[in-house]
C-alpha cells in the first residue's frame, strides 16, 4: 500500500501529490487489515509528512505491523531467499520499510 501518493485534485492547480489523508483516519483501516489472520499485506509506504513528525499512533501501529510480519515466513520477492521485512521504528529511516 502506497499511501504517500494519495493526492487531491485542485481545479486550478491540477493534481497535488502531498498526501491529503489524515493519520487518524487511515490507522483504523490499516489496523483492521493487520488484525485479519488472512491478510496478505507485505509493504506499506507512509507519507513523508507522517514520518517527519513521528506520531505516537504511527509508532504503535508500526510495532503491531512488525509483530505481524514476524509471525510469517517471508522470502525475498526477487530471489526467494529468507527475508526479514519490517518498518524502521526509529532514527532517520523511521517509518520506512526496506525488505519486502
Structure description:
By secondary structure, the chain is mainly α. The chain has a two-stranded antiparallel sheet with strand order 1-2. Helices cover 34% and strands 6% of the residues. It has helices at residues 23-35, 48-53, 56-70; strands spanning 8-10, 14-16. Helix 1 (23-35) runs parallel beside helix 3. The radius of gyration is 15 Å and the shape is globular. It starts with 7 loop residues before the first strand and ends in a 30-residue tail after the last helix. It contains three helices and two strands; from the N terminus they run ββααα.
Helix content: 25-40%
Number of strands: 2
Sketch the topology as an H/E string, one letter per element.
EEHHH
Q: Poorly predicted ranges (pLDDT <50, ≥5 residues)?
A: none
Described by the principal axes of the CA atoms, the overall outline is globular
Q: What is the percentage of strand-forming residues?
A: 5-15%
* Overall average pLDDT: 83
Largest sheet: 2 strands, antiparallel
Strand order of the largest sheet: 1-2
Query: Using only CA atoms, what is the Rg?
Result: 15 Å
Q: Helical region count?
A: 3
User: What separation lies between the terminal Cα atoms?
Assistant: 12 Å
Strand-pairing-aware structural class: mainly alpha
Amino acid at each position: 500500500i502506497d499511501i504517500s501518493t494519495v493526492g487531491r485534485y485542485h481545479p486550478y492547480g491540477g493534481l497535488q501529490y502531498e498526501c491529503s489523508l489524515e493519520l487518524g483516519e487511515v490507522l483504523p483501516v490499516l489496523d483492521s487489515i493487520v488484525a485479519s489472520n488472512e491478510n496478505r499485506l507485505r509493504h506499506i509506504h507512509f507519507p513523508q509528512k507522517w514520518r517527519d513528525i513521528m506520531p505516537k499512533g504511527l509508532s504503535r501501529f508500526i510495532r503491531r505491523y512488525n509483530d505481524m510480519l514476524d509471525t510469517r515466513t517471508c522470502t525475498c520477492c526477487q530471489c526467494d531467499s529468507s527475508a526479514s521485512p519490517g518498518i524502521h521504528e526509529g532514527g532517520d529511516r523511521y517509518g520506512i520499510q526496506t525488505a519486502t
